[in-house]
Amino acid sequence: MNVVCLDLEGVLVPEIWIAFAEESGIPELKRTTRDEPDYDKLMKYRIEILKEHGLGLKEIQNTIEKIDPLPGAKEFLDALRERTQVLILSDTFTQFAGPLMKKLGYPTIFCNELVIDENGMVADYRMRCEKSKLTTVKALQSAGLDTIASGDSFNDLGMIEASKAGFLFKSTDAIKKEYPQYPAFEEYDDLLKAITEAL
Question: What CATH number should be reported for the domain holding residue 172?
């Protein structure tokens, strides 16, 4: 039995932090896992900037409410779920994911959690497990499942590499150049075709 593991941001929905950077007028928050391979370093950097500007969870959630899935994302997800099991593996947070899952038809998502203080500020974050995407893919495989994975960023490479088939989707030129062994797609129809052939 197969299960397809998809990244969320950049693949199915726009990057939340980029949307918030634009909304808040803080360009430093545009930095994502496409730019910074070290997730812990990236999150500490983001939390520090939020503190400096006095911005908390509520402000970020207000931005998320306005974010829609990428054009064609829900149709792609629906078509994929007709063919096989799909699991979204994301380094986003439960406090961010809710409204987006509603717009995508409530697919299953595994993600992380923010630690919010009594003033509604982001104090810290908790990863579900270490190397969460790769660890989850390996756990699925140990349960007798074959995995197929797709994502756009550095933090997706582990699950792509460990899967029986892996694809880059809407990735950066730098990542595509550095990892030419993974087929790279820009359109949902092409990714759907590639995954279907790998099933």
Answer: 3.40.50.1000
pTM: 0.95
* Catalytic status, residue 186: no
Q: Does residue 188 lie within any of the structural domains? A: yes
Check 9, 91, 152, 156 and give the catalytic one.
9
Report how many domains make up the chain: 1
Domain region containing 93: 2-16+67-198
Reported as type and span, the H/E element at residue 66 is none
Task: Establish if 60 belongs to a structural domain.
Answer: no
- Catalytic residue (one of 7, 15, 152, 156): 7
**pLDDT tens digits, one per residue of 152-191:** 999 999 999 999 999 999 999 999 999 999 999 999 999 9
Tell me whether residue 7 is one of the annotated catalytic residues: yes
